[in-house]
């Protein structure tokens, strides 16, 4: 059972006014820059992996999801008569500088979590016609985090076997 304060907070969020067009456009474009950076970065990471590896398949699934999110965000912006940005977020350049797969996957997960938090915080103020798409995007980021956590754990086990074996 929710406490009184939790119920009030939930109700206030449900009745929150929608974002103004300028705020909505800035929010979607910020997400678009981040998703574009993620898609581009993951494409670069894929070039370093064997095509037939499980790692390539898992990273490719996240990369496809990032690209799909770009398309969704562009569609939402155009549907609202707003102009999509062509910018690529700084996440791309920072991610290229990272060496080591475990570190890269941790960085990727921080980016995925950043987007998920932004969407969750803004969802109540999102116009109703866009909420379903952004809720799905939020859920895909949570799934991508889990996928990358599993890959990261596999990488740690592979590169540090003594650390994981029972003595």
Secondary-structure topology with pairs:
Elements (H helix, E strand, L loop, with lengths): L3 H11 L6 H26 L7 H26 L11 H6 L4 H22 L5 H32 L1 H4 L3
Helix pairs in contact: 2-3, 2-5, 3-6, 5-6
> In whole angstroms, how far apart are the ends?
47 Å
Q: Report the order of strands and helices.
A: HHHHHHH
Report the CATH superfamily. Ferritin, core subunit, four-helix bundle
Rg over CA atoms, rounded to whole Å, is 18 Å
Structural class: mainly alpha
Number of helices: 7
Low-confidence stretches: 161-167
Instruction: Write down the domain tally.
Output: 1
CATH structural fold name: Ferritin
| CATH architectural grouping | Up-down Bundle
The backbone outline, from C-alpha atoms, is globular
Proportion of residues in β-strands: under 5%
Question: Major beta sheet, specifics?
Answer: none
Percent helix: over 70%
Q: Give the total of beta strands.
A: 0
**CATH structural class:** Mainly Alpha
Average pLDDT value? 87
